[in-house]
Amino acid sequence: MAALPCLTGYADPWSARAGDEVRFMVSAEGPASYEVEIVRLVHGDLNPAGPGFKEVPVESAVNGRYAARRQETYPGSCVVVRESRLLDSIASFTLQALIWPTTPRKGPQTILGRWSAIEAKGYALMIDAMGCVALRLGADAGAVATFSSGVPLLPRKWTLVAASFDAESRTVTVLQEGLARYPGVATAAVAHEVTALTPAFPAAPFTMAAAFAGEARGRPVFAEHYNGKIDRPRLAGAALDRAAIMAARADALPPDLAPTMLGWWDLGEGMASLAVSDRSPHRLDGRLINLPTRAVTGHNWTGDTLRAQDAPEEYGAIHFHDDDLYDACWEPDFRLAVPPGMKSGVYAARLRAEGLEDYVPFFVRPALGKPTARIAYLAETATYMAYANFNVLNLSDAERWVSRLLVFERANLIMHAHPEWGRSLYDSHSDGSGITWSSRLRPTVNMRPKQNSSFGLAGSSLREFAADTHLLDWLETKGFAVDVITDEDLDREGLELLKPYRVLLTGTHPEYTSTRMWDALEAYTAGGGRMMYMGGNGFYWRIAFHPEALGAIELRRAGPGSRTWITEAGEDYQSLDGGLGGLWRNSGRAPQRLAGVGFVTMGFDIASYFRRLPESHDPRVGFAFAGIGPDEPIGSFGLIGGGAAGLEFDKANPALGTPPNALTLARSENHTESYLLALEETGAMPPNVAAPENPAIHADIVFFTTAGGGAVFSFSSQCWCGSLSHNGYANNVSLLTENVLRHFL
């Protein structure tokens, strides 16, 4: 079957300012070359009912034609141990670990060892093709032998596995013992065999959870990835007996074993880092590749402690996956030095070749210390990463009800054809565990303009990046100067990033928020800043940005919430900061506290409108409704779903933090039965009655001021910005938004 013609890429970093360099990594299947032009994106929606697609070409030294090539991606996580001459002097040895395999029957998987898949030599403790623990040895002459326990491993059950080679007696021993025993089920085995084969030392590093498979573009490549947890991996320079193997499971290195132990790795140490610590005197420390999941329960987890940082000795494991991906490691095809004076905005490198087209977005900030506007637009890059490559073609039949979330179009086919580019935080790994990491260092095919709405239907599907351009277009049309900043910038710089701005505008779906972001936003409005919340389902999930793996975010889907997977027991807390994962609401910071409103429902058919409430006539908010009649429906039109209230939206709730001085100005009505209460809203097992029968299902437009002179105005719907351009921007959604923005300025 011929490959689907494809032209795509990604930028690093996503956010840059004058003097910074943005690298563009491009891969193509089909064309021999492609054209590049830098453009500023203004309106990314192709819906013919709207103002049309808008881009502004930018003169740049990188514009031109480039030779095309396919760039490979190598997913899968592992540990690579630093090079040491000690590893070249091993004769007898023992490899051991406690493992919790999730797909033991998927084929050969390396647990730990020094094995070269390209030289076919070395040694490795592994899972063989039959799902049994085995030791594989490879000699210089090309001879390879595998010695198996003969007893298949049970999936998701902790098992002690070990293998030794005695160079003097030529004896191989393979051992496995399940930590739990079941009548009639084989979980233990010991196999001994004498061999004439002597393992050779390959030109390969010592690894865990994968085998070395050569290099590509100067970087190591790995194969035979292991799926599951590894706890307490050990390497001894002797063939240990069972008693010594059992003793080597201890937290502390037994004195009598110290002379023979070469590697004594503690996978629970340094959970917030990429480092893997060796506590032996030899310091054979390792480094993580492709961000496996840390802060996971180990073999000895009791359940008495739920936070890894409180009992690290019970969280001494790492969960590896064959499809983990942090950095695609593509080579840059061209580099843009952001010139002085480049207008702050949302940009893209437009790629074109033989009927193919793609846009690789990036964001330009103002020069350091030189804001160019009093308005800042906060690009929701954490949300873009969370949804990166979310694809309806990956959904199970039971989940097809959300198929309107994305249009079935070419982008879906490309993502489906390239699972190696990684999936979203809504998807699961190949072993069924939820994906907890996402990054921007890979193609993000659904973060693009021209992601069409379903404009043959009333219920359009435009979301995230393309939907956010509705706001950018409105700001430009109305003549508002604006600086663009990103979530990653805010997490790194905090409140100082926001201080120069009088008004902060969010995007249409700022769903994912780190602790530093939340603290900065709350401090901004408390200190006099004005925030306009332009979307729905915002400030919902708690995340953390990795301090070393730049451009990566961590998510734990813990506790109640509207979610597609659930964390394993005992793994609700983030590895990076120890914060409780899941909804901010579950940590006592419901979105109502920050924005006055919080998520209540989602529905993916048609959108509705708002009606003014009595509090909209309060003199404190008279500025907002100038020119808007008391009875006219607000937003009974729009590019997304045909209205301003839809997809996902929020409401006020004083019990969750809506300030007592907040005014609820307008409320949506007339929603369809596809809108059900969010799971966290249903309480203790009540019937989840759909709209319009359920009066709890509505969106609220809310305004409040802070004691420090700040203010918040929340429009509370993902569809709001899709209504701004209706009737040539002359409509009550546009007018209300403009009234608020001008007053806030």
List keywords for this structure.
16-stranded antiparallel sheet, elongated, mainly beta, ten-stranded mixed sheet, 33% strand, 745 residues
Mind explaining what this structure looks like?
It is a single chain. The protein is mostly beta strands and 745 residues long. The protein is built from nine helices and 41 strands. The protein has a 16-stranded antiparallel β-sheet that branches. Helix 5 crosses helix 7. It is elongated, with a radius of gyration of 28 Å. About 2% of the residues have low confidence.
User: Span between N and C termini?
Assistant: 58 Å
Number of strands: 41
Main sheet record: 16 strands, antiparallel
Q: Specify the helix fraction band.
A: 10-25%
What is the strand content? 25-35%
| Assembly status | single chain
Mean pLDDT comes to: 93
- Count of separate DSSP helical elements: 9
- Quickly give the structural class: mainly beta
- Evaluate the radius of gyration: 28 Å
Low-pLDDT residue intervals, each spanning 5 or more residues: 397-408
Overall morphology: elongated
